[in-house]
Design brief:
Layout: E1 8-11, H1 18-28, E2 33-35, H2 51-62, E3 67-70, H3 87-108, E4 111-115, E5 127-128, H4 139-146, E6 154-158, E7 161-162, H5 171-177, E8 181-186, E9 190-191, E10 194-195, H6 196-208, H7 211-218, E11 221-223, E12 230-231, H8 232-243, E13 247-252, E14 261-262, H9 279-290
Parallel strand pairs: 1-2, 1-3, 3-4, 4-6, 5-14, 6-11, 7-10, 8-13
Antiparallel strand pairs: 9-12
Helix pairs in contact: 1-6, 3-4, 8-9
Length: about 290
């Protein structure tokens, strides 16, 4: 029996995560992947304050959407240069948006893949899995925890991401690429997560191999950590080496240690651990994919 080609909408298709998720899936399903953007007219407009109307408008052109991948988020490390974000900003983007998408899933008939964060656990949490009680410490973490979806057609993915972002210049890689001289690398803070390319591959795995429904029967949240935990100092050294950046990384102890380490009780069961790899390999693969965009 021939597979049904899924119709997919990527929200935030020009951001650090969304641009790679959109490009990767577009190559898999050239005719049935669409994206949204606040400013790029090649994509659909999407108003987070009027989700129902936005979805109605988009689906008039696309037909029924099978999967929405939410890549819109307000990060703790990035803000509008004109002002600091407040609690309402974080709640609007990180909490109310995914919850509204979750609430509309049944009416519009789509499944929702939503990115959460490892920061829903406090920095001293050590080893945590999907069943570990959350313990957010910041307004960002609280907003992400509150925005984790629970509907039968929604799945939240906890991870931490690295990726290129030449448009909005967010994230660790862009920070390093635009530094001169030396940069501090914290030896007592762990990074535990994935590249944006890994995340795109996970979305394809969930959709194409129909793992979404099987996983959702077991859990409403999934930890995705294909990169083994390493210190931020080690991570910066690998990025500097692979990208050939003319900077030095100074090994430094941060005022607050981060020993949080995500694990998953579902990775083997649903073949999520197939994406496990060394961070150097991951950055090289990400760099190669980036060169094709």
């Amino acid at each position: 029996m021939k597979k049904k080609i899924p119709h997919i909408l990527v929200l935030g298709a020009t951001g650090m995560l969304g641009r790679v998720v959109y490009a990767y899936l577009k190559r898999k399903y050239p005719e049935t992947v669409w994206g949204t953007s606040r400013s790029d007219k090649r994509f659909f407009s999407f108003e987070i304050d009027d989700i129902s109307h936005s979805l109605q408008s988009i689906t008039k052109d696309t037909g029924k959407i099978d999967y929405i991948i939410n890549c819109i988020g307000l990060l703790s490390s990035y803000h509008d240069q004109s002002r600091q974000p407040d609690a309402n900003d974080f709640l609007s983007v990180n909490t109310f948006l995914p919850l509204e998408l979750d609430a509309h899933a049944s009416a519009f008939g789509y499944k929702l893949i939503h990115i959460s964060t490892d920061a829903v656990f406090n920095s001293s949490s050590k080893i945590v899995d999907e069943n570990t009680p959350t313990s957010p410490q910041t307004i960002y973490a609280l907003s992400k925890e509150a925005g984790e979806t629970s509907g039968a057609s929604s799945l939240s993915i906890r991870t931490s991401i690295i990726g290129f972002d030449p448009i909005e210049m967010k994230g660790l890689i862009e920070l390093v690429r635009n530094m001169h001289g030396s940069i501090n690398g914290f030896s007592n803070q762990l990074f535990c997560g994935c590249t944006v390319l890994h995340y795109a591959q996970l979305c394809h795995h969930l959709i194409d191999d129909e793992h979404f429904a099987r996983i959702r029967k077991k859990t409403k949240v999934l930890h995705f950590i294909p990169l083994k935990p390493l210190s931020k100092y080690e991570l910066l050294c690998r990025i500097q080496e692979i990208l050939g950046l003319p900077i030095s990384i100074e090994k430094t102890v941060a005022p607050q240690a981060v020993v949080r380490e995500l694990t998953s009780i579902f990775a083997g069961e649903f073949q999520i651990d197939l994406y496990n790899c060394d961070v150097s390999q991951a950055v090289r693969e990400l760099q190669t994919f980036e060169s094709t965009l």
